[in-house]
Design goal:
Helices cover 41% and strands 17% of the residues. With 952 residues, it is of the alpha/beta class. The chain has 4 domains: 219 residues, Cytochrome Bc1 Complex, Chain A, domain 1; 177 residues, Cytochrome Bc1 Complex, Chain A, domain 1 (2-Layer Sandwich); 205 residues, Metalloenzyme, LuxS/M16 peptidase-like (Cytochrome Bc1 Complex, Chain A, domain 1, 2-Layer Sandwich), CATH 3.30.830; 214 residues, Metalloenzyme, LuxS/M16 peptidase-like (Cytochrome Bc1 Complex, Chain A, domain 1, 2-Layer Sandwich). The chain has a 7-stranded mixed beta sheet with strand order 1-5-6-4-7-3-2, sandwiched between helices. Helix 11 packs antiparallel against helix 12, helix 25 packs across helix 29 and helix 25 crosses helix 32. The radius of gyration is 28 Å and the shape is globular. 52% of the residues are buried. Keywords: Hydrolase, Metalloprotease, Protease, Signal, Zinc. Pfam families: Peptidase_M16, Peptidase_M16_C.
């Protein structure tokens, strides 16, 4: 369904070092590992089982050893396209069931393709475990006979929409394509992107699909992991039954590493239609995954730019003031690897100056070498990352299946940890000298349209194929089509849908509460699965306390307070946090100011001492204030390039009005940010009070220890809480009106529709969430099923209800291909109009079953448990509010649902926001029959003469 960044990211996190309990990275007291049992079926399928009875859920991950690196020029994007095709139909599962049934069982499902592989995964309540084996095995071994021309044509449109959304309509979307074409020679398996080229996808045939399946989708070319609340012996029998008859397939020869070298450096530039900021990337070829030097290269990336003491941070950000940040990192794949420098610079910054600053930073690194403290900090952070990476059954499944399929050892985690832990300063300098220093590279300067002068001098223009927007929806119209005719594959087993197992009952975690002497309430959940603690302090106010005309004060203050304390410089504070393997962050929402963190349970006391110091002893560093204010302006400018951000800004301003804090982005606007002073931040800081604040904590820690650790904070933090008043809502938008914003040459139109509905404290809040589920609560919702599955207009379409104390909106959101804008609007309009009338007993039962079962997996992670505590404290919910919510759901009948829908989802009361290509779509959307008003990207109404000028 998407390029699978999640899996690769989790592998990096889990590949952390294992430190002793003293925090000394030089020793390894015990080996962390995930217990598993591995066996191989007669057909060659390797199966790994992991028991985890902490929650009544099961995760299943099937990894096929085929990615875009098996494709040929002219057939690019096929591995990813086949992943999409696999989610359609199969012989023994009802048409469309794969995408619909799993959410209806209370589960989640998806897949991902990257250069080297494809993975399919599900997490379901325990009672649907055998059903998942049925549906998963049928997709794997029994889908190819069901593929029709109509399904092929429909999925082509979906994949094309995904590319338009992620690449064509996104700033810097083409950069990966430019780099791959120039880093890897023609014929190299990494010469093209995973999603491929649209002409290649359009030319795919049924024979191509069948050939690809027959060649690569044999059982011997895959690994299967099942993790969770299972019985190993019983699961072995079920795996044999459901997967044992899948053909082995032809032998798929392994690919040897294929690293590349460049005869000379290449410098290219590209004018980006969406970008508002210049971006520089430098990519140097390095080593493949599991190469012993990969671990040192990863640490090198962190050392060069991962802290305020890092040489590149100093030269690019702190001294040069060229960008808000810089990233350097090692990216290893099966055949080759890359070391990457990435800088999104401030507006109007000449990228030659960025390149020079990077060169100066590297010289500084060569002179100063590797700091022992920095190396220790990185390893401490990786220890925490190790536990975070295996804190859910799905992440455990990912780790096991990845290491088994690509390295032959599901338990390679322990080896990875040892190799990372063993990296020395000498290793880091060696890989720097060998792979990075004085090596040839590919460098890209991606600049805003019309600003080629910002590109690195001497750069050559990069060639990119760009789709032409055609206002001809009929040429790409698709349909469900006829079902395939075929003979079912014989089986000695009954391959019909198995029954549910015993329904697992949701058990809410035990919540303890307390109150500190300064009035701060404490809410906790003890959970000892991993030695981690997550916590947050939530202080009411947030953006509501920003001064008028200075939106963004709270947000900027939250950033500044992390830049050192009265007794620690920004670099010293960062190092102190890092050496504990902890993370501490501040952020704001419309209604709250929050301080959050994660740490090893053994380091909770020391971490909270730092939190207290940050909160009570701010540094008010003028240099950091200036840097952050400039970075804020850069980020706000960058958002002007994002069609989704443009739509969101307009939507909320139209609903709330420009004077209401909910009508203005939390980080403010370029105008309000410019007006902020240091005194504004100090004045806001004086209002941070414990009186109405709450402390939430979840993890491997007991109540008495939390209370003891919080004692000092309670004693030293005592100021009074300010009065908080909500701003008056003065909507700019008019119900029933469509607002259009032009983004020239957009390949998609972003659609955002909705109206103000209710507060989370409203007695109907839960009922509205329940009532929305069938419309747009997921991939089984009507919006998704119609706009994506039936029509092929979009990559995804959803609806939801925002949660706040303030009256909050119901919304519908999607991005559709440009020439399907009007057709999509018409479908949504009719669907919402008829939603109450179409809501029958079947919808009632489906909603109740789905939402009831979802709770078995909804609160597995520590972050989800913090969410329970936040709901209790902010909205005055009882400890058993989840069970109460379930009872309310089961008590609703058809008329109750209809009443809620009619009350809150009246289509005529909604506003429509469309962000797209005016030249092709403006006249089209007028055919919807609603008044149409054109806005600029700042949500300001264009006058008639401006509209005429824009049209010319």
């Amino acid at each position: 369904m998407r390029k699978f960044h999640l899996l690769l990211a989790s592998v990096f996190l889990i590949s952390g070092s294992l430190l002793s309990q003293t925090g000394d990275p030089s020793n390894l007291e015990s080996e962390f590992k995930i217990d598993y049992e591995k066996f191989t079926l007669d057909n060659g399928l390797e199966v790994i089982l992991h028991e985890d009875h902490s929650d009544p859920i099961v995760a299943v991950a099937t990894m096929m050893h085929v990615g875009s690196n098996r494709e040929k020029p002219g057939k690019t994007g096929f591995a990813h396209f086949f992943e999409h095709m696999s989610f359609n139909d199969s012989e023994n599962v009802p048409v469309g069931a794969n995408r619909k049934m799993i959410p209806e069982w209370g589960g989640s499902r998806n897949g991902g393709t990257w250069s080297d592989g494809t993975v399919y995964y599900e997490v379901v309540p325990k009672d649907a475990f055998e059903k998942i084996l049925w549906i998963d095995s049928d997709r794997f071994g029994y889908m190819i006979n069901t593929v029709t021309q109509a399904a092929l044509d429909r999925e082509k449109q979906v994949v094309k929409n995904e590319k338009r959304e992620r690449v064509d309509n996104a700033p810097y979307g083409y950069t990966d394509e430019i780099i791959r074409k120039n880093l890897y020679p023609e014929g190299h398996p990494y010469n093209w992107t995973v999603i491929g080229q649209l002409p290649d996808l359009q030319s795919a045939t049924l024979d191509d699909v069948k050939d690809f399946y027959n060649k690569y989708y044999g059982a011997a070319n895959a690994s299967l992991v099942i993790a969770g609340d299972i019985d190993v012996e019983e699961t072995k029998k079920l795996v044999q039954q459901w997967f044992g008859e899948i053909p082995s397939g032809p032998e798929v020869s392994s690919l040897d590493p294929k690293p590349v070298s460049l005869e000379k450096s290449k410098s290219l530039y590209f004018e980006d239609n969406f970008a508002k900021l210049p971006e520089l990337r430098i990519v140097i070829p390095t080593v493949e995954d599991y190469n012993k030097d990969m671990y040192a290269l990863r640490i090198l990336g962190q050392l060069l730019s991962g802290s305020k003491k890092s040489p590149l941070y100093q030269t690019v950000v702190e001294e040069g003031k060229l960008a808000p940040n810089i990233g350097t990192y090692q990216s290893s794949s099966e055949l080759a690897g890359e070391f990457i420098f990435r800088v999104r610079a401030n507006a109007n910054t000449d990228l030659d100056s960025v390149k020079l600053a990077i060169e100066n930073g590297l010289k500084r690194f060569e002179q100063n070498g590797v700091s022992k403290d920095e190396l220790k900090r990185i390893k401490a952070e990786l220890e925490t990352g190790l536990y975070q990476g295996v804190s859910t059954v799905l992440n455990k499944a990912f780790q096991l299946v990845q290491d088994n399929e690509f390295n032959g050892d599901p338990g390679y985690l322990a080896t990875t940890a040892k190799l990372t832990n063993a990296v020395t300063s000498e290793d880091v300098m060696r890989v720097y000298n060998q792979y990075v220093k004085d090596q040839n590279y590919v460098m890209t300067s991606v600049v805003p349209k019309g600003q080629t002068e910002l590109a690195v001098e001497g750069s050559e223009k990069a060639e990119v194929w760009i789709e032409e927007v055609k206002n001809d929806v009929a040429s790409e119209e698709v349909s469900q089509g006829e079902e395939a005719e075929y003979e079912k594959t014989p089986s000695k087993y009954d391959r019909s849908e198995p029954d549910f197992g015993k329904l697992p009952l949701f058990e809410a975690p035990n919540v303890w509460t307390s109150e500190m002497a300064n009035g701060m309430e404490v809410f906790g959940i003890e959970n000892n699965e991993v030695p981690l603690v997550q916590f947050e302090i939530s202080i009411p106010g947030g953006q509501l306390l920003d001064p008028k005309g200075k939106a963004g004060v709270a947000s900027l203050l939250s950033d500044l307070m992390m830049q050192g304390t009265a007794t620690r410089t920004p670099a010293e504070l960062e190092e102190a946090i890092g050496l504990l393997g902890a993370s501490i962050n501040m952020y704001t929402s419309n209604e709250d100011f929050r301080i959050s963190g994660t740490c090893l349970s053994k380091n909770f006391d020391e971490t909270m001492k730092l939190v207290e110091e940050i909160l009570l002893e701010p540094r008010w560093d003028k240099a950091e204030y200036d840097r952050l204010k400039k970075a804020l302006a850069t980020n706000l400018k960058g958002q002007e390039a994002n069609p989704r951000a443009i739509a969101s800004l307009a939507f909320y301003e139209l609903l709330y009005g420009p004077e209401n804090s909910f009508g203005i982005p939390g980080s403010g606007t370029l105008e309000t940010a410019e007006a902020i002073s240091m005194d504004d931040l100090k004045n806001y800081y004086s209002k941070l009070s414990p009186e109405d604040a709450s402390f939430h904590v979840a993890g491997s820690i007991k109540k008495n220890r939390v209370e003891e650790v919080l004692g000092d904070l309670a004693e030293n933090w005592n100021n009074k809480a300010p009065e908080i008043k909500n701003d008056r809502i003065a909507a700019k938008g008019e119900a029933g009106t469509l607002y259009f914003i032009d983004v020239p040459d957009a390949k998609q139109s972003v659609i955002l529709i909705g109206k103000l509905a209710l507060s989370e404290k409203d007695e109907d809040a839960n009922e509205l969430v329940f009532a929305n589920e069938i419309l747009g609560g997921g991939s089984n919702g009507k919006l998704f099923q119609t706009l994506r599955i039936e029509k092929g207009y979009t990559y995804g379409a959803y609806s939801g209800v925002s949660e706040n104390l303030e009256v909050s909106p119901f919304y519908i959101t999607t991005s559709v291909r440009a020439n399907a804008t009007l057709a999509s609007l018409e479908i949504i309009q009719e669907m919402v109009k008829n939603y109450a009338n179409d809501f029958g007993e079947e919808e009632v039962e489906l909603t109740q079953n789905k939402l009831l079962k979802e709770n078995t997996r909804a609160f597995e992670s520590l972050g989800a448990k913090l969410g329970i505590l936040r709901d209790m404290s902010k909205y005055d919910k009882s400890e058993d509010f989840i069970e109460e919510k379930q009872k309310a759901l089961m008590a609703m009948d058809q008329e109750d649902f209809k009443e809620v829908i009619n009350e809150y989802l009246n289509e005529q009361e909604m506003i429509y926001v469309v962000v797209g290509d005016k030249a092709t779509q403006f006249e089209e959307v007028k055919k919807l029959g609603k008044p149409v008003v054109e806005l600029d990207i700042y949500a300001e109404k264009l006058e008639a003469q401006d509209q005429q000028a824009a049209g010319e």
